[in-house]
Design brief:
- It is built from 7 helices and 7 strands; from the N terminus they run H-E-H-E-H-E-H-E-H-E-E-H-H-E.
- The protein is α/β, with parallel strands linked by helices.
- The chain has a single domain, classed as LmbE-like (Rossmann fold, 3-Layer(aba) Sandwich).
- Helix 5 links the parallel strand 4 and strand 5.
- Helix 2 packs parallel to helix 3.
- The chain starts with 7 loop residues before the first helix and ends in a 12-residue tail after the last strand.
- Bound molecules: zinc ion.
- The site of zinc ion has 6 residues, from helix 5.
- Zinc ion binds next to helix 5.
Length: about 240
């Protein structure tokens, strides 16, 4: 379904059935991350749940993680991390796409906004996930702002959810508005995260994501959750359930 035909009826269903996985139509879910691993760590559980519910899930990696390892050339790192991203997407039942920018040198410009907007809209998103732009990593800021610009250019015709990564170290000032229960897919999310072997995933998980999933779970009243900040479709902002 093209984003332009995304109707208020479906919006209502998304809102009123939040967390129950009940929508009549197959949704296109698109997730943008700066580096291989960011989407999986930030919202891999939510992506797995969407895929399991029969929706299309695409992950756009802005870069291929070229600059992560000073002992390797950019092309060596990119090859390794592309493979890790593809393995991880297979576990999540998602499609891996790449935005063509370079790690640690990402750009926010008219040209880069046009290019990433075209890529995002080519997937006809009903829901777009991306980095919360207040983040200590410039690539995360830029990935978040590129996705925000694509959403603005689309006329704000789909739901935009910001995810957090390494809160306490990278994501800043994140006050969630939405939660997704990932208790049932926690092990699968972990397998997707741990596919990024070059990123020391066990330590990153133990230091940040285990605590984050459990704390967000406490806030949401479930065992483990992912948290988001939601920007709604434009014509849904003044609505509240029951009125
Ligand atoms: Zn990153």
């Amino acid at each position: 379904m093209p984003f332009s035909s995304f109707g208020s009826d479906l919006n209502y269903k998304l809102e009123s059935h939040k967390g129950q996985g009940e929508v009549d139509k197959k949704l296109n879910i698109v997730c943008v991350g700066a580096h291989p691993g960011d989407p999986e760590f930030g919202c891999g559980g939510t992506l797995a749940r969407y895929a399991d519910a029969g929706h299309n899930v695409s992950v756009i990696y802005l870069t291929r993680g070229e600059a992560g390892d000073p002992s390797k050339t950019y092309s060596e790192s990119a090859a390794l991390r592309t493979k890790e991203a593809e393995t991880s997407c297979k576990i999540l039942k998602a499609k891996a796409l790449f935005g063509g920018q370079i790690d640690a040198n990402t750009e926010l410009s008219k040209g880069s906004i046009d290019k990433i907007t075209q890529l995002i809209l080519s997937q006809k998103p009903d829901i777009l996930f991306t980095h919360w732009p207040l983040d200590t990593h410039p690539d995360h800021q830029i990935a978040g702002l590129l996705a925000l610009n694509a959403w603005v250019k689309s006329g704000q015709q789909f739901f935009l959810y910001y995810y957090e990564v390494n809160t306490g170290s990278e994501t800043l000032e994140f006050k969630p508005t939405e939660y997704v229960d990932i208790s049932a897919v926690r092990e699968r999310k972990k397998a997707a995260m741990f596919s990024h072997k070059t990123q020391n995933p066990e330590e990153v998980y133990d230091t940040f994501f285990k605590a984050m999933e459990e704390f967000r779970g406490l806030e949401a009243g479930v065992k483990a959750a992912e948290a988001f900040i939601l920007s709604k479709v434009k014509n849904e902002r003044a609505n509240i359930i029951g009125l």
